[in-house]
């Protein structure tokens, strides 16, 4: 059954050099980099703030690394905001979510980026096989926005999908995708004796047993692992312990299912922490993410494709636009809790870093559109590495610079050379 909408005229509310859809770490970086290169830039975001998983997603810390000037500027400016009540001697990678929200908006304002919050991308404007803008929906209604170059930093690649860029979902052989998580924070933790477990392979023996084994026994499936991280805020710990499998993050019904299940798991996890984990005896639920953590959905076909072999070989591409990308194969268990059998964390053999070629950001079929963040062109296994937030910042910085160069020189983004981008990066 269908309802047929009446034809109507949509107001054009703006024309920009560069339009970035999605304001997670990648989109934030893309908009900032483009504006700093002199482009008139708009950043569109569905949440009430920028930062994506780093802010709305209540992520605990930046994992991995990347040779991105913008990423390291963000870290240093974040640390500069810490004060006398912050957790002492804490590494710079740990996130104060509320401070980061303000800092990111401040940096965008300094660069002159226009920001449109509470706004969904609902369609694209195509001129044959060239993107010319997007259609958005918000409280002000349905609007058209034109741009010379569009950057898709929506994570799921909503713009690219609507434009007709070919893609597949999840693993190549069965389209299974990594599980989703709703991060939350607990307060009242005694840091004097608190336990922190940073990875699935980390263990800790207590009088009642080993914590990972206890979690599998006492926290209902599909949750059942312990990941606990310190925070810049005293007595506060970030928990990455809810889990929902068999979720397609591009489907509303799946996201709703995951939200309901993960919120049901929170009191179960809290009870476990109080009973079994040293230092958490009097902890309480402090806050939870307003954005569920979707790790994997669409993989788009680009002019190049990054593979796990490229990463393991630390391959150096002459046409790199991201370099010094460092992480592991962080594949969460596709059928339950913990690390997937294909994942490699502590035993990951390559620690010198790798590069990402410009072609991974250039989608097939559609001109003047750039892929940005976890939706760039790569395999399921490679994606489990480059989806890390610092690497996404590096990808975003490259995309923003490329878009600005294309506008300045009046050429298609695919005609911008990697050498031109490298010179600025």
What characteristics describe this protein?
alpha/beta; 10 helices; 425 residues; single chain; 4-stranded antiparallel beta sheet; 7-stranded mixed beta sheet; 28% helix
Distance between the termini: 51 Å
What is the count of helical runs?
A: 10
Helix/strand order: EHEHHEEEEHEEEEHEEHEEHEEEHHH
Total E-strand runs: 17
Structure characterization notes:
With 425 residues, the protein is α/β, with parallel strands linked by helices. The protein is 28% helix and 20% strand. It has ten helices and 17 strands. The strands form five sheets. Strands 1, 2, 3, 4, 5, 6 and 17 form a seven-stranded mixed sheet that branches. A hairpin with a 6-residue loop joins strand 11 and strand 12. Helix 1 packs parallel to helix 3, helix 1 runs parallel beside helix 9 and helix 9 packs across helix 10. The model has no long low-confidence stretch (mean pLDDT 97).
List the helices and strands and how they pair.
Layout: E1 12-21, H1 25-36, E2 41-44, H2 69-80, H3 97-111, E3 114-116, E4 120-127, E5 130-138, E6 141-152, H4 158-163, E7 167-169, E8 184-187, E9 205-206, E10 209-210, H5 211-218, E11 228-230, E12 237-239, H6 252-276, E13 284-288, E14 298-300, H7 308-312, E15 320-325, E16 354-357, E17 369-371, H8 380-386, H9 389-409, H10 418-424
Parallel strand pairs: 1-2, 1-6, 2-3, 6-17
Antiparallel strand pairs: 4-5, 5-6, 7-14, 8-12, 8-13, 9-10, 11-12, 15-16
Task: Briefly characterize the structure.
This protein is an alpha/beta fold.
């Amino acid at each position: 059954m269908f309802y047929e909408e009446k034809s109507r005229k949509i107001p054009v509310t703006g024309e920009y050099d560069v339009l970035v859809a999605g304001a997670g770490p990648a989109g934030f970086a893309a908009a900032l980099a483009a504006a700093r290169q002199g482009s008139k830039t708009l950043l569109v975001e569905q949440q009430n703030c920028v930062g994506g998983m780093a802010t709305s997603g209540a992520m605990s810390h930046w994992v991995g690394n990347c040779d991105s000037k913008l990423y390291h500027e963000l870290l240093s400016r974040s640390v500069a905001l810490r004060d006398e009540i912050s957790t002492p001697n804490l590494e710079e990678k740990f996130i104060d979510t509320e401070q980061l929200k303000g800092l990111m908006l401040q940096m965008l304002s300094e660069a002159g980026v226009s920001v449109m919050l509470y706004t969904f991308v609902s369609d694209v404007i195509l001129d044959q096989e060239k993107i010319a803008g997007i259609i958005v929906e918000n409280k002000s209604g349905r609007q058209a926005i034109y741009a010379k170059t569009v950057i898709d930093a929506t994570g799921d690649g909503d713009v690219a999908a609507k434009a007709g860029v070919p893609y597949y979902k999840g693993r190549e052989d069965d389209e299974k995708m990594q599980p989703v998580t709703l991060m939350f924070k607990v307060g009242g933790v005694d840091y004097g004796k608190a336990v922190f477990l940073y990875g699935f392979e980390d263990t800790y023996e207590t009088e009642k047993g080993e914590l990972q084994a206890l979690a599998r026994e006492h926290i209902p499936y599909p949750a059942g692992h312990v990941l606990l991280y310190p925070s810049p805020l005293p007595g506060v710990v970030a928990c990455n312990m809810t889990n929902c499998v068999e979720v397609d993050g591009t489907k509303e019904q799946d996201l709703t299912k995951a939200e309901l299940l993960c919120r049901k798991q929170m009191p179960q996890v809290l009870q476990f922490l109080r009973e079994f984990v040293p230092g958490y005896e009097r902890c309480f639920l402090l806050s939870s993410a307003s954005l569920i953590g979707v790790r994997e959905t669409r993989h788009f076909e680009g002019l190049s494709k990054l593979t796990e072999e490229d990463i393991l070989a630390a391959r150096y591409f002459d046409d790199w636009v991201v370099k010094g990308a460092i992480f592991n194969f962080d594949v969460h268990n596709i059928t339950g809790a913990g690390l997937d059998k294909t994942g490699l964390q502590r035993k990951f053999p390559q620690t010198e870093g790798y590069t990402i070629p410009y072609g991974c950001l250039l989608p097939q079929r559609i001109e003047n559109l750039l892929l940005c963040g976890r939706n760039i062109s790569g395999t399921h296994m490679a994606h489990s590495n480059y989806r890390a937030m610092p690497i996404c910042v590096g990808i975003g910085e490259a995309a923003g610079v490329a878009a600005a160069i294309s506008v300045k020189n009046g050429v298609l983004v695919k005609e911008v050379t990697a050498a031109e981008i490298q010179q600025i990066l």
